[in-house]
Amino acid sequence: MNQDEQRDYFELQEPEYPETVPSVLKHKYSKQVVLESETSGLSNTISAMQSISISMPSAGNKIITVVDENAQGFSINGVGDDSCPPLETLGNNAEPKAVMFLSRPMSKGSSISEADNDSQRFKDKNFDSFKTWSGKLERQITSLSGRSRKFDSEEESTQNPENEPLPVDRYFDALEGPELETLRSTEEIVLPDDKTWPFLLRFPISSFGICLGVGSQSVMWKALASTISTRFLHISLTANLILWWIAVALVAVVSSIYLLKVILYFEAVRREYYHPIRVNFFFAPWISLLFLSLGLPPSVSSNLPEPLWYILMTPILCLELKIYGQWMSGGQRRLSKVANPSNHLAIVGNFVGALLGASMGLKEGPIFFFAVGLAHYLVLFVTLYQRLPTNETLPKELHPVFFLFVAAPSVASMAWAKIRGSFDYGSRIAYFIALFLYFSLAVRVNFFRGFKFSLAWWAYTFPMTGAAIATMRYSSVVTNVLTQTLAVILSLVATLTVTSLLVTTMLHAFVLRDLFPNDVAIAISDRKPKHHRKWFHIRHGGSEWSKDIETFLKFANTSNNDIEAALNISNDEAKRV
């Protein structure tokens, strides 16, 4: 087949031109020739053209530039057809073979690219598997607006709104570290790791720790103003009122954000709930509400209705039935497997609830929760001391979580004192345990230095505040200069800690914007990765494999071009080299 037979002409339709383009220029100036090559199997596009470029500014005078095949060009400044020259000025009388390009330059600083990025981010399908409706609502809105969209069949097959919850084995296989928040090097995540995820996906349940810290401060300042041993400070209840409203605002904001996460990204919330460590933080919202009830200013209300206590304790009881049952029943969620300082959150709710119930005049309910909390606290305390699973130490970023050891005994001492009506020996035993744990951690200054700020720092606040309140209760019974000074010092330390952490949290959240990184713990895949033999497996492999690699590296620079031949050299020969 010759070259002429290979040509296939496609006649271009006459383009639509703006009204300002002269009618003499509205021609079919070009034809595009497509040449298909038999040898390469590819299509080469050959354009035989003389380009006529017409540049149309967005405002002002119209500038038309025409370039013919002899590179003769001219510019016409003016508006409309009246300022255009006749066709003869184009040069040749023969009909030119050209293509007309109409361009409209954009002004500098255009925001079109930014708008495109926002639009792509909104329409990004990478996060549909975590959306509550998996993109169905968006498709319905699109169809109602009269626009049709084509979805990839493979993408549709991956969007399963009825995904089964991940088994607990996957969390242990895919994640590592005491908090199970670090992805293993052999694992992959189902969400893109090269971009920032939506804010709701990065907002963890552990954010309620902020509410715990500020809410406990309102309780502490109420105790400072009302306790007999600290009345010499002449503290007004106004501080309690201000802190209480701040705590209410924080609880409302954090709860609203997480409620949006439940509504829009329910799969992410479900993965947090099935996470063997994160599930403990689901107690935090209800404990925060208990603190708000305990710190209620007298000017707002002097008495709380008894049904409120049952409403707040019902979800805590439901969570305990699940968590404690898993601790006892064995399997991957047994206590010796998932033991972590954050498990204290599943315990301390019993003592805070018992304290509130006894303050409201209830009897049986507070004793019930106190007994349940005491039994499981003893088991947890021993388990955490032994560190049965792997004897791993917490990374530096999670060292503040150790202060949760102080929370349960300090609140338990106040709860038992309220139940008994006096700070008796049982309350003092619990208080002394909390005080010893507090100082044993406080003296280890280097233990809490040199690590990056994170939400785990809020673990400082709630236990420190609880210890300060318990010290005030104890100083009311044993009143002397030592106990009063200790109560004031612990209260001051707790207040400064909460204030500094609140400011630092706002700085990282709104200025530096690094408070909420991508939460890889909820994005692990439900399938185990395919294991390949990699170099870093040497340290876990057999001795023969290590010797083969060592031998190969020794003979890598020799004249042997065959790798297998180098590996077949005996180890004795390798040692002589």
Automatic annotation (TrEMBL):
Any Pfam family: SLAC1
Subcellular location(s) of the protein: Cell membrane
UniProt keyword terms in alphabetical order: Cell membrane, Ion transport, Membrane, Transmembrane, Transmembrane helix, Transport
InterPro entries from the UniProt entry: SLAC/SLAH, SLAC1/Mae1/Ssu1/TehA, Voltage-dep_anion_channel_sf
Main location (coarse class): membrane
Topology in membrane: Multi-pass membrane protein
Spans through the membrane: 199-221, 241-265, 277-296, 308-325, 345-362, 368-386, 398-417, 429-448, 455-474, 486-512
Protein name from the UniProt record: S-type anion channel SLAH2-like
Organism: Gossypium arboreum (Tree cotton)
Source lineage: Eukaryota, Viridiplantae, Streptophyta, Embryophyta, Tracheophyta
